C-alpha cells in the first residue's frame, strides 16, 4: 500500500483555528486560518481545512489540539455527573482543601465557585480498603446497585465518577463496581480513578476523576462529530490528539482520557519549541505564545521543557502530566478597560464572536488588537494575507471614546498605554517561571509565536534584558506546526511512599517493569511496534518533611547514590541549597514514547545581505524606543533571505502576524529563515 504523503495539524484557539499542512515528499509547509466557531467547534476545524484546500484522501496523519474540555469546565457545559465513593466519604470532592487562592488571600467575603457536582449527585457504598490496600470490608454489590439506581434513575446523571479510598493500591473494588453498574446501566459513562491515575491523595484523585467524567460525554460527541466530518471528506488516515504534557494519543484513547487534552493547544507550541531549540543549538529558551485570549509562557531548560504533574482548572486540581506553563488572560482579544481611572487589560476577552472592534463583527470594547491598529503595527488591507480587512477608524474611535478621553490622553498615547499595561503583566508572568524558580531570564533566548507573540516579544526582551528573540516562520500557526513533530506518548505512575534508604531496590525494579509493561501495551494499542517503544523512568522525590517534590530521571540500573546526587543537583538549581534529610520517594513514573518523523528545518540559500528587495514601504507607527510616532520600514517576510540584516524601527509583515522591532534593536535572518532580534550593540 502506498503511503499517503500529507500530514495535517489543526489547533483551535480562542479566536482562530490554525491549520498546517506538511507534504513529506517536499517538506513544504502550507498554513491557513479560519474563525473559531464556539457553538460548533468541529465546524471551525473543517472550515480551516477547507481554506487550506487539502485533499484529505492524501492525508496520512491528522493531529489535533483542542481546549474543548477546558472550555466545558469553564462554561459549565459538561455532562450531569455523579460520584460513587466509600460510605461516609461522599463529601470528599465538595470539601476539598481549605486553601484560599493567593489572589483572594485577604478577601474575607471570598466564596468558592459553584461545584461541578451537587451533593445529591453523590453516593457512598459499603466496602473499604486500608492504607496498605488490604480489604477491611468487602464491596457490597447491593449497595453499589442501589447507589447507581439513585444517581441514574432518580437524579438523571449521565456520567459517574468512581473513586474509592486507597484504590490506587488495589483497583479491584472500583473495577467490580464499574462492572455491576454497567450490567444495569450500559449507556451510562463510567470513569474510574485507577484507570486515570494510580497515585495517593484522595481529594486530588477524586477531582481528576470527576473532571474526567464531567467532560467525557461532550468530548466524545465532539470527536465523533469531527471524525464523521473528516471521513465524509475522504480522510482515512490516523487521527491523533495532543496531550497536555506533550506527545499525542489516538482519538480512541483520547475519548477515554479527555482530561489529558485540556491544555493540548499550548502543548503543541512547547513541543515545537523544544524541537526548534535543539535544531538551533539553544539549550535555554523561554516560549512566548500570545493568541487571541491568553498568553502562555514556559521554560525550556537544557533542551527539555519543565514538566509538572498537577494542573489546575479553576480551583479543581488535576493529576495529569503537563508542561509547567504560566498562563494569564492577556491576548490579542483582551479587552482594555478603566477601573476607577486605572487602565487595565484583560482577563476578559472579546473572543472570536464578536471579536475586537476592528473586526467589524459587532464588538464595541477596545482590545489589544485595536490598540495595535491605532499604533500603526497592522496594515488593515493585509490582515490575514488580505482575506479579512480591518476597520481602523472604528478601532480608533473606540479607544478615543472609552480610553483616551477619560484619561486625558491622545489616542496614540492611550493605545501605547494598553501595550504598557500588557507588558507589565507579561513581565510578571515570565518572572514567575524564571526568577522565582532560580533562573536568570537574561541567559535565555525568547521564542515568540502565536498571532500576537512577535508583536510584543521585542519589547519584553528590552524590558527584561533578554539578549535574543527568535521568530519562526508562520508564528501564528507555530503550535499547529509543533504538533507535526509530536511523538505518541502515554504516562503511568504508582505511589511508593518510602525513603530512598529503606526502599527495596529489587521491589522498585519489579514495580518499574510492571508499569513499563502497561506503557508498552498502551503504545502497541496505538500502532507503535513494541520493539520501537522508548521508556523513560522517573522518581518523584522530596526531602523527608518537605511538602513539595521534584522529578528526577533514573537509569535502567537503580543506584541510590546516583539518585541522591541527581536530586541534590536539581534542588540546588531550583532553590539554591541542599539539605541532609533523607529522601522520600512519593511516586515512580514511566513515560512510554513512540517516536514519529519530524518535519525538517530547511536550510535556505543565503542572500546578499541587502533586505531592500523585501522593503514594501514606510509607515508611521509608534516607537517604544523613542516614545513617539516615527516612520517604520515595512518588510515582506516572504522576500527576506538568510543573511539579511537591518535595524529598527521596522515592521516585518507576513500576513498572519507582524513582528514589531523598535529602535535600538537589530534583525538578522538566519539560515532557516528565522528572524533573530537582538540589541544593536549586542548584534
TrEMBL record:
Residues 506-673 form the Acetophenone carboxylase-like C-terminal domain. InterPro entries: ACX-like_C, Hydant_A_N, Hydantoinase_A, Oxoprolinase-like. Residues 7-184 form the Hydantoinase/oxoprolinase N-terminal domain. Residues 205-490 form the Hydantoinase A/oxoprolinase domain. PANTHER family: 5-OXOPROLINASE RELATED, HYPOTHETICAL 5-OXOPROLINASE (EUROFUNG)-RELATED. This is Hydantoinase/oxoprolinase family protein. It comes from Micromonospora chalcea.
Amino acid at each position: 500500500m502506498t503511503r499517503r504523503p500529507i500530514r495535517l495539524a489543526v489547533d483551535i484557539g480562542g479566536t482562530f483555528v490554525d491549520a498546517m499542512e506538511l507534504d513529506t515528499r517536499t517538506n513544504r509547509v502550507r498554513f491557513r486560518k479560519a474563525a473559531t466557531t464556539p457553538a460548533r467547534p468541529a465546524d471551525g476545524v473543517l472550515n480551516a481545512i477547507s481554506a487550506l484546500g487539502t485533499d484529505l484522501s492524501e492525508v496520512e496523519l491528522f493531529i489535533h489540539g483542542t481546549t474543548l474540555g477546558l472550555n466545558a469546565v469553564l462554561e459549565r457545559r459538561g455532562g450531569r455527573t455523579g460520584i460513587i465513593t466509600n460510605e461516609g466519604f461522599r463529601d470528599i470532592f465538595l470539601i476539598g482543601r481549605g486553601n484560599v487562592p493567593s489572589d483572594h488571600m485577604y478577601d474575607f467575603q471570598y466564596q468558592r465557585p459553584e461545584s461541578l457536582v451537587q451533593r445529591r449527585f453523590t453516593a457512598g457504598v459499603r466496602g473499604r480498603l486500608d492504607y496498605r490496600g488490604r480489604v477491611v470490608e468487602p464491596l457490597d454489590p447491593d449497595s453499589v446497585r442501589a447507589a447507581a439506581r439513585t444517581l441514574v434513575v432518580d437524579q438523571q446523571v449521565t456520567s459517574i465518577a468512581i473513586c474509592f479510598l486507597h484504590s490506587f493500591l488495589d483497583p479491584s473494588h472500583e473495577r467490580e463496581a464499574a462492572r455491576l453498574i454497567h450490567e444495569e446501566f450500559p449507556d451510562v459513562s463510567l470513569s474510574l480513578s485507577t484507570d486515570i491515575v494510580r497515585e495517593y491523595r484522595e481529594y486530588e484523585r477524586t477531582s481528576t476523576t470527576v473532571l474526567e467524567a464531567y467532560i467525557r460525554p461532550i468530548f466524545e460527541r465532539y470527536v465523533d462529530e469531527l471524525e464523521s466530518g473528516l471521513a465524509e471528506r475522504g480522510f482515512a488516515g490516523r487521527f491523533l490528539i495532543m496531550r497536555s504534557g506533550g506527545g499525542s494519543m489516538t482519538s480512541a484513547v483520547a475519548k477515554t482520557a479527555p482530561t489529558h487534552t485540556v491544555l493540548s493547544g499550548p502543548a503543541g507550541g512547547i513541543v515545537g519549541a523544544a524541537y526548534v531549540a535543539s535544531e538551533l543549538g539553544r539549550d535555554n529558551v523561554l516560549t512566548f505564545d500570545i493568541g487571541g485570549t491568553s498568553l502562555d509562557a514556559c521554560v525550556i531548560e537544557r533542551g527539555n521543557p519543565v514538566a509538572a504533574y498537577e494542573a489546575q482548572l479553576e480551583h479543581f486540581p488535576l493529576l495529569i502530566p503537563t508542561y509547567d506553563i504560566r498562563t494569564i488572560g492577556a491576548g490579542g482579544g483582551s479587552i482594555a478597560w478603566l477601573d476607577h481611572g486605572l487602565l487595565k487589560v484583560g482577563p476578559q476577552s472579546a473572543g472570536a464572536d464578536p471579536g475586537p472592534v476592528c473586526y467589524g463583527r459587532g464588538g464595541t470594547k477596545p482590545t489589544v488588537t485595536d490598540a495595535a491598529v491605532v499604533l500603526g503595527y497592522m496594515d488593515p488591507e493585509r490582515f490575514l494575507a488580505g482575506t479579512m480587512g480591518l476597520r481602523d477608524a472604528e478601532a480608533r474611535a473606540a479607544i478615543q471614546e472609552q480610553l483616551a478621553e477619560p484619561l486625558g490622553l491622545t489616542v496614540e498615547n492611550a493605545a501605547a498605554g494598553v501595550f504598557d499595561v500588557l507588558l507589565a503583566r507579561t513581565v510578571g508572568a515570565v518572572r514567575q517561571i524564571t526568577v522565582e524558580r532560580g533562573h536568570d531570564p537574561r541567559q535565555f533566548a525568547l521564542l515568540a509565536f502565536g498571532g500576537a507573540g512577535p508583536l510584543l516579544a521585542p519589547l519584553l526582551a528590552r524590558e527584561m534584558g533578554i539578549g535574543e528573540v527568535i521568530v519562526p516562520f508562520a508564528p501564528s500557526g507555530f503550535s499547529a506546526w509543533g504538533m507535526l513533530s509530536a511523538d505518541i506518548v502515554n504516562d503511568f505512575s504508582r505511589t511508593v511512599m518510602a525513603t530512598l534508604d529503606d526502599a527495596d531496590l529489587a521491589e522498585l525494579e519489579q514495580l518499574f517493569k510492571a508499569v513499563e509493561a502497561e506503557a508498552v501495551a498502551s503504545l502497541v494499542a496505538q500502532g507503535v511496534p513494541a520493539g520501537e517503544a522508548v521508556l523513560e523512568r522517573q522518581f518523584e522525590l522530596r526531602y523527608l518533611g518537605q511538602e513539595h517534590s521534584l522529578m528526577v530521571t533514573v537509569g535502567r540500573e537503580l543506584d541510590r547514590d546516583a539518585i541522591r546526587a541527581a536530586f541534590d543537583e536539581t534542588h540546588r538549581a531550583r532553590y539554591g541549597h541542599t539539605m541532609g534529610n533523607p529522601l522520600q520517594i512519593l511516586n515512580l513514573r514511566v513515560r512510554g514514547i513512540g517516536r514519529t518523523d519530524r518535519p525538517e528545518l530547511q536550510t535556505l540559500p543565503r542572500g546578499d545581505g541587502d533586505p531592500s528587495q523585501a522593503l514594501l514601504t514606510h509607515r508611521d507607527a509608534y516607537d517604544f524606543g523613542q516614545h513617539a510616532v516615527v516612520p517604520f520600514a515595512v518588510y515582506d517576510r516572504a522576500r527576506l533571505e538568510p543573511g539579511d540584516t537591518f535595524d529598527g524601527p521596522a515592521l516585518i509583515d507576513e500576513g498572519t502576524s507582524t513582528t514589531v522591532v523598535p529602535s535600538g534593536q537589530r534583525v538578522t535572518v538566519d539560515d532557516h529563515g528565522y528572524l533573530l532580534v537582538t540589541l544593536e550593540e549586542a548584534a
